[in-house]
Every structure is written in structure tokens, then in C-alpha cells.
Specification:
By secondary structure, the protein is α/β, with parallel strands linked by helices. It has helices spanning 27-37, 59-62, 80-94, 115-127, 140-149, 170-179, 193-201, 211-214, 219-239, and strands at 6-8, 11-13, 17-20, 41-45, 69-73, 98-101, 131-136, 153-156, 185-187, 206-209. Helix content is 37%, strand content 16%. Strand 9 (185-187), helix 7 (193-201) and strand 10 form a beta-alpha-beta unit. GO terms for molecular function: thiazole synthase activity.
Length: 262
């Protein structure tokens, strides 16, 4: 039986696909693509997209009466203190306590995370009752430190944010999955549906993608493709793939064949 429930801290989701809200032409398209993806969670860079000011166009208004959870993220923060202050303000304004921790160390080229500052911020906010989903490098040692700091989910990058390069080191994702007991969500660098399926096939608990959907020529169609890819990848992982072999192996038995006179 396929268990498709994603459990992160005290939260439970029916979908293992998480989507982003950036790079769409407007909030209506953001909503339409999110609904097409069948995702239950959309991450929002709260320093760039309004979810706290009711007097301006507010993304949260578009998701009223849906089952979609808003996941604030701290994109744009470069220190633990910035991220901590931001999330305290967000919880005060919205009541949301499930967050995506994102502290960037290189803001110019790679957008790689500052894992030291990420760990610091995770420790503080986890103690304050936040459910922290931590964006990090694909390093199993760091992943374990984040879990020890209180992270409810580890979110290793597949490749640089927005690059569309897919998973550059599948082994590290597997190592992270072995190192921690919390869910592992492959985040950043997903370019197409097959990338998402591969992430799930190697054992990731979920996938987060934004640019691959928002910047596709047909975002709605790509969102649907991602939905099916994540589901199929999960099914394939649970089914158990065959072992790889160096040489051919006949599908039919080679002994006891019917003999024909020639």
C-alpha cells in the first residue's frame, strides 16, 4: 500500500511536492499552477512577496478556502539574526510557525547557504516552537547537525537555486537520508519532471521546485507533470528497483527449452 503522507513535525500533508511562489507573472497564475500541482504547501519569500500586510495585494488571500499551507522562507537573509528576527515578525503577524530556513552565504553567484548561520538560527527558532525546514548544502555531516539543532526537515540543494541542473550528486542525497531520521526534501535546481522523479526514486521524502514550473513555457502543464513525477518516483522507490548488472539477463528461462528439429 502506498503511504503518500508527508509528516513534518506536527504537520501532515497529502502531497510530497512542495512548490514555490516566485517568478510568476501574477498571483493568479501562482494559484492556478499550485492547484494544478496538487501540492499542499507553497513557500513564500516574505522579504519579497507580501503575506503580512492586509492593506496591499496579499498572496494569502488567493489561497483562502484551499488546503494549501503557506511556508514562509527567509530568502534574502544573510545572517542568523536576520532570519530569527524575520520569522518572529511573521509569526506575530500571521500565526504561521512552519518555516523554511534559508540563510545565504554567497549572494552573487551560487546562492549557496551559510550552513553555520543556518544551524545557529535553527537552534534558536526550534527552541521557540517553530517547525523548521532547513535549506542546506548536500552535506550529510551538516544535515545531521541541523537535525541535532532541531530541524524538522532537511532540505539539501540538488544544484544551485534556479539553475535547472537537476541532482548533481545523487549519492549525497542518499547519504543524507541515511544520516538523519527527519524527512529529506530535495530543494533547488530541479529543472524538469524527470529530475523530481529521480529525487524520489533515490529515497527523498519530498521535492520542492519553483523555477521549473514558474518559468516553463506552460506552467500549468509543468505543474501537472511535477505532480505525476513525484508520485511515480515515490511508487518506484517503494516498489524496489532491480539490481544493476554488467551483462544481459534473459527475461525468459534458458533451461528446459522446447527443442525443434531443423
Amino acid at each position: 500500500m502506498l503511504d503518500n503522507k508527508l509528516k513534518i513535525g506536527k504537520y501532515e500533508f497529502d502531497s510530497r511536492l512542495i512548490v514555490g511562489s516566485g517568478k510568476y507573472k501574477n498571483f493568479s497564475m501562482t494559484k492556478d499552477a499550485t492547484l494544478a500541482s496538487n501540492s499542499n504547501m507553497i513557500t513564500v519569500a516574505v522579504r519579497r512577496v507580501n503575506i503580512t500586510n492586509p492593506n496591499e495585494e496579499n498572496l494569502m488571500d488567493y489561497f483562502n478556502n484551499t488546503n494549501i499551507t503557506i511556508l514562509p522562507n527567509s530568502a534574502g537573509c544573510v545572517s542568523a539574526n536576520e532570519a530569527i528576527t524575520l520569522f518572529r515578525m511573521v509569526r506575530e503577524a500571521t500565526g504561521i510557525d512552519i518555516i523554511k530556513m534559508e540563510v545565504i552565504g554567497d549572494t552573487k553567484r551560487t546562492l549557496y547557504p551559510d550552513v553555520i548561520e543556518t544551524i545557529k538560527a535553527t537552534e534558536v527558532l526550534a527552541r521557540e516552537g517553530f517547525t523548521v525546514m532547513a535549506y542546506t548544502s548536500d552535506d550529510p555531516i551538516v544535515a545531521k547537525k541541523l537535525e541535532d539543532a532541531g530541524a524538522a526537515a532537511i532540505m539539501p540543494l540538488a544544484s544551485p537555486i534556479g539553475s535547472g541542473l537537476g541532482i548533481q550528486n545523487k549519492y549525497n542525497v542518499v547519504f543524507i537520508k541515511e544520516a538523519v531520521s527527519v524527512p529529506v526534501v530535495v530543494d533547488a535546481g530541479i529543472g524538469c519532471a524527470s529530475d523530481a522523479s529521480i529525487a524520489m526514486e533515490i529515497g527523498a521524502d519530498a521535492v520542492l521546485t519553483n523555477t521549473a514550473i514558474a518559468q516553463a513555457q506552460n506552467p500549468i502543464l509543468m505543474a501537472e507533470a511535477m505532480k505525476h513525477a513525484v508520485f511515480a518516483g515515490r511508487m518506484s522507490y517503494l516498489a524496489g528497483r532491480i539490481q544493476r548488472k554488467a551483462y544481459a539477463s534473459a527475461s525468459s528461462p534458458v533451461s528446459g527449452l522446447v527443442q525443434f528439429d531443423v
